[in-house]
Structures are given as structure tokens and as C-alpha cells.
Design brief:
Oligomer: single chain
Order of helices and strands: EEEHEEEHEEEEHHEHEHEHEHEHEHEHE
Distance between the termini: 22 Å
Number of helices: 11
Number of strands: 18
Strand content: 25-35%
Mean pLDDT: 97
Helix content: 25-40%
């Protein structure tokens, strides 16, 4: 039987979110119903609310979540009722050209649940990133559920569902940071600080955090940055070069998604160094660089989708590191809130007052 639960919807472009009763259908083939325990408030949810991703309103917001599988549909083998899972928005297909070549983190046919959750009057909801986890329960594709150690607190485990994983993966998976590397991270919100933590895990010798907000630089220092640069007070490119013997960093992670900060990243890397773009630009943004500089500096210019992660591989590993005390996921949680507090949490996030607000259900 379908279930009625409370969930947070964005009814229209830039309209305040509101808590509504939503209908969650029984899971069909390949689907699962998850009882959500915690869900982080991510910038992507704000972008949905603002109409910056699609105009398929109303949206059921929330995607950075952990919870317990309650029901599974026919044919589901990867998870079972009672499993503690982190939700992910890239359920790999196993059949596309990327999966068949052994690169499932690039899967070109990721999928979501086929059925729709609805409002009481039957209006279909568009779940954010195919998840919709600002709700007591949600319907997802079973492949979006990644089983992890239940000893992890849901408010920290869920962070791997988006921002923290995107940052850690940008450093480790996309940037291939290794022992002794110098790394610079431009933009130290949730994703950028995830990159700082990832660079630390990988054994980087020097980690330079760049931002215009002293609070974010303080958070970065707590997560492993060896040096911080306030870009309001100094030229970040010159500062990074000065801190790397005049050469530039081996890997520069750009976690802002703007042309001006990307140019800084490009010129702040060493010869043959790597730039990783994990910040998400808007459609109208363009970038102009001298082609000779692109050629002459060598190296690699990469973009990172979801930290190039493979949830089945990366989530359990990172949870194990957290439980061993080697990855401080708790440092990302600035506050825990209720469903009714999400609109105010969006404003605090926009103002840079929090690293992550986490909704507890």
C-alpha cells in the first residue's frame, strides 16, 4: 500500500519551500522505499528551488541522505529491508559503454525510480537528483542505495551522498593526489573542504585553502589545510606560487565554478600540473584562455562529476575511515535541524554561516 509522509517541496521558482503530505508508492521492480534518518542541506537543493536546474516544479527537495531500507520491489538483490544505506544520485547501469569498459563511475545511463511520488491531489513531484530526501520516506532506484556500516551516525554518513563525496573524490579520484603533492583548493564550502580532507587523506605535503571568507578558511584549517589564503587580501595565484617555491601546486581544485576563479586555478598550478573543476558553473558562463598557455603549461584540465566516485566502492571505504578516526566527517555538520527549518537553513547557507545544516527525521 502507498504511504503518506511529510516532505518539503519547492512549489515554484524562488517561492518559499513548504512542508506537505506526499504519497510514496510501494516499490516496483528495481525500486526501494527508504526511511530517511538524515539529509544535508546542499546548494543543489537551493538551485532547484531557484529554478536553476530545470523548471519541472514542484520539486521534492533533498538528496544528501542516509536512512534504512524499509521495502524493496521485485528483482532487488543489492539491498534488503533493515539495511542502513547512503543514497546516491548516480545508480550505475552496468551496461553502457563506460560500464562495459570498466569505468562505471562515468556511467552514461544512470537511473532513478520509475514511479512518481505525488501530492495528495495526484500532482507528480520531481525528486531532486532523483532522490527527494527532505521527507520521512522516499522512493528510489535500489541502485541508489549503498549499504554502509550502521555504526556510523546518519547525520555524517549522509554527507557522502553529495557534497563531501564530490570534494574528496575531486582530490583523490579525479586529481589523483598522491603522497608528497602540493594541493591548492579554491573555494572552501562543503565541496572545497571535502577536497581539503581528501588531499589530507591522500598524504599531500602541502594543502593551501583559498577563500574570501575567514570562517571558511578556519574550517579548512581544521580539516587539514596547512596554509590559508584570503583572496580578498592578496592575489591567490601569487600566494600559491610563493608557498610552493615559485612553481605552483601539483593539483588545484576549483570548487567555485566561476570563470575568474578557474583562471586563478589554471595559472596557480605547476607545469604539467592538474586543474580539477568541481564547482558547477551556470549555463551563460564562458571561459577564454590563451591557447598557447594551454599548450605550453601542459598537464591536465579535468572536470569532476560527483568526485568521479563509485558509491559501492567509495562510500563503505570512507565510512570505515570515519569510524577509524581518520576522516572527520563530524566537522562538516554545523547544525542539525527539523524539516520545518529548511527555508531558514537555505539563507544561512547562502550567507556562509554554516558548512552543513543537516535535517534529522
Amino acid at each position: 500500500m502507498s504511504q503518506q509522509v511529510r516532505g518539503v517541496i519547492a512549489p515554484g521558482r524562488n517561492e518559499p519551500v513548504r512542508v506537505e503530505t506526499i504519497t510514496v508508492p510501494d516499490p516496483g521492480p528495481g525500486e526501494a522505499v527508504v526511511r530517511v534518518q538524515a539529509c544535508g542541506v546542499c546548494h543543489t537543493d537551493l538551485h532547484y528551488k531557484q529554478g536553476g536546474i530545470t523548471d519541472e516544479f514542484p520539486f521534492l527537495l533533498g538528496h544528501e541522505a542516509a536512512g534504512v531500507v524499509e521495502q524493496v520491489g521485485p528483482g532487488v538483490e543489492e539491498v534488503a529491508p533493515g539495511d542502513f544505506v547512503v543514497l546516491n544520485w548516480r545508480a550505475v547501469c552496468g551496461q553502457c559503454r563506460a560500464c562495459r569498459r570498466g569505468r562505471p563511475w562515468y556511467c552514461f545511463q544512470t537511473h532513478n525510480a520509475s514511479q512518481k511520488m505525488t501530492l495528495g491531489d495526484g500532482t507528480e513531484l520531481s525528486p531532486a537528483l532523483g532522490i527527494g530526501a527532505f521527507a520521512e520516506k522516499t522512493l528510489v532506484a535500489a541502485g541508489q542505495c549503498t549499504k554502509v556500516d550502521p555504526k556510523a551516525a546518519p547525520q555524517v554518513a549522509g554527507l557522502l551522498g553529495c557534497g563531501v563525496m564530490a570534494g574528496i573524490g575531486a582530490a583523490i579520484n579525479t586529481g589523483n593526489v598522491t603522497r608528497g603533492d602540493t594541493v591548492a583548493v579554491i573555494g572552501c564550502g562543503g565541496v572545497g573542504n571535502g577536497a581539503v580532507a581528501g588531499a589530507r587523506l591522500a598524504g599531500a605535503a602541502r594543502i593551501i585553502a583559498v577563500d574570501v571568507d575567514p570562517r571558511k578558511l578556519e574550517w579548512a584549517a581544521g580539516l587539514g589545510a596547512t596554509h590559508v589564503v584570503n583572496a580578498r587580501e592578496t592575489d591567490p595565484v601569487e600566494a600559491i606560487r610563493e608557498l610552493t617555491g615559485g612553481f605552483g601546486a601539483d593539483v588545484v581544485v576549483e570548487a567555485v565554478g566561476r570563470p575568474e576563479t578557474y583562471r586563478q586555478a589554471f595559472y596557480a598550478r605547476d607545469l604539467a600540473g592538474t586543474v580539477v573543476l568541481v564547482g558547477v558553473p551556470t549555463p551563460e558562463m564562458t571561459l577564454e584562455l590563451p591557447l598557447l598557455d594551454v599548450f605550453g603549461r601542459g598537464g591536465a584540465l579535468k572536470s569532476s562529476w560527483y568526485g568521479d566516485c563509485l558509491p559501492s566502492r567509495d562510500f563503505p571505504m570512507l565510512i570505515d575511515l570515519y569510524l577509524q578516526g581518520r576522516l572527520d566527517l563530524e566537522a562538516f555538520v554545523s547544525e542539525t535541524i527539523a524539516l520545518d527549518d529548511i527555508e531558514a537553513a537555505f539563507q544561512r547557507m547562502h550567507d556562509g554561516e554554516v558548512l552543513r545544516s543537516v535535517v534529522m527525521l
